Amino acid sequence: MVGAADIVTNSGQVRPLDAAMIGLMKPSSVIPLMYESWEFREADVDLAACRARGIMVGGTNERHPGVDVFSFLGQMAVMQLHEAGIPVRGCELLLLCDNSFASFIRDDLERAGADVTLAAELTADALSPRCDGVVLALQPRAEPVFTAGDAELLGRTAPGAVLVQYWGDADRAALSAAGVPVWPPRPPRAGHMGVLPSAVGPEPIVRLQAGGLKAGQVLARGLDEAAAEDLAYVQVLWPRHPAASLAGHSRRLSREEIMNTVLLLGMGPTALSALESLAARFRMAGLVREVGSPPGGSDEVLARLPCTCWRRVWTRVTCCTSSGSPSAPTTPSPICTPG
């Protein structure tokens, strides 16, 4: 069955995709991750085995308007806090978050009536003695992200405050020793979330599965065949794009280099999310925007173009290379000018 599949996901019923399973897959198979690429867990997929067989691996852009799973993150936090006995409304909460979840969780907690402090790490300045709960949403590492020192500080500064383990591992022995109550009672598996999207109903799960399969479709059909609006669903984890820039190429580009080079036609409402997704994983050949913006006008998409050493000039086509150097102009007007 595995050997016949074109798309193999890392869903809970399938993972881990270890070397043995990947060895059964055909080289043309692809693996879409049911999360964004920066959330990758090494225990889920053996990337070395994928490289050896040439199997492409990509994350799913959960913030794409057609997927929009991140919009449920705050609701999941509210539900988890309720389960922990914290009413949210009228409560003082500290949100520990160092990743893209932050604004989604914070905004829904505030809409639910909480007074929220956002911090990337636990400090005495961030922690109020009146704190009712600490929502732990730090990206997991090899060691617990909530340490014994954090447990001691929380227990001493805000006695009775509950640590709610949303995402990120915690030193539970230290929490117990410090007298800090923690939720959920049973620790989630290392690197996994303490609350799942299914906690708020089937909608986020259906969206995630559909988004992941869409990402798989784009990978399986070939990135060189995909339109920009389809590429916006995918965050390629492997293979990474070549480090060389487009400028100065005197030889014919290889198929791999072509597949990893993108000219974005950013004229629709998803242009910004498409640029953010593509720029992280591909060499950006350029960006096409509509003519008509006044010189010096504000254009967030144009401003995000990865050309950090140069000032962008509004024009029909704006190009830069991954090294930050301008490419050869393709229109009579300047493309990039020195900043």
Give an account of the 3D structure.
The chain is of the alpha/beta class and 339 residues long. Helices cover 27% and strands 17% of the residues. It has 11 helices and 13 strands. The chain has helices at residues 19-24, 47-53, 73-83, 102-111, 148-157, 172-177, 202-221, 228-231, 255-259, 271-279, 300-303; strands spanning 30-32, 56-60, 92-97, 115-119, 133-137, 162-167, 182-183, 234-238, 261-265, 283-288, 310-312, 317-318, 336-338. The chain has a 5-stranded parallel sheet. The termini are far apart.
Q: What multimeric state do the chains show?
A: single chain
Number of strands: 13
Strand content: 15-25%
| Amino-to-carboxy terminus distance | 56 Å
Main sheet strand line-up: 4-3-5-6-7
CA radius of gyration is 23 Å
**Biggest beta sheet attributes:** 5 strands, parallel
- Ranges where pLDDT stays below 50 over 5 or more residues in a row are 241-258, 307-339
Q: How large is the count of helical segments?
A: 11
Structural class: alpha/beta
Q: From N to C, what is the helix and strand string?
A: HEHEHEHEEHEHEHHEHEHEHEEE
Helix percent band = 25-40%
Write a brief structural summary.
The protein is of the alpha/beta class. It has helices spanning 19-24, 47-53, 73-83, 102-111, 148-157, 172-177, 202-221, 228-231, 255-259, 271-279, 300-303; strands at residues 30-32, 56-60, 92-97, 115-119, 133-137, 162-167, 182-183, 234-238, 261-265, 283-288, 310-312, 317-318, 336-338.
